[in-house]
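[PROTEIN RECORD]
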Amino acid sequence: MIRTERHGPVQLIVLDRPERRNAVDGPMARALGEAVGTAEHDAEIRAIILTGAGGAFCAGNDLKAMAAGDFPMPTVDGPPPMQVTRKPAAKPVIAAIEGYCFGGGFELALWADLRVASASAEFGTLNLAHGLPCLDAATVRLPRLVGQARALDILLTARRVPAREALTLGLVSHLVEPGQALEHALALADAVAALPPGALHAARRSVLEQWSLPEDEAFRNEARLALRP
């Protein structure tokens, strides 16, 4: 249900359950966490791509599996349903998105640094329409990406956001023709992987770590990261 492919310095992680539009059950979530962890600890991997098989990114958590008790009961301190979303990845992550990107799948895409979406993609927290709360940080990351008012419009209506609107909102980094999201993401990942890693990782960490810091401390943190041996 999780398939991995190596493309030079880029690790491709595929959600491969197309018969369920790549909806994630408990074993698949654990396999996703393991695949990401393996990529993070491999010194030769410089970037990670997440995508889905069969023309969809991820329809969210598998509701049938949840009803059957397949997911462990979520807790404040335990792992989230998607396993990886409560801390930034150790390496740049690009989501290549075709078709459905809903619920926990949307939250997984928000976890990525960059999102390449085809014009057929749709986004949203449809889980809220089923009475299922956000547990993979959508309510934190979405406002930081698009602003509070726009985030609340998406969250409080639980509506589907088409790809072109997502691009306008700044939710999507690159918009491509249907079927081309992965190809474009691979080219983008190659460009990321080709950069000198020290300066790249310092810049990325500074951006990710600034949110909890006062401005003057964020300036100092940028310098600390940039000048670290």
Summary: The first strand starts at residue 2 and ends at 7. The radius of gyration is 17 Å. Residues 2-193 form a domain with the 2-enoyl-CoA Hydratase; Chain A, domain 1 fold (CATH 3.90.226.10).
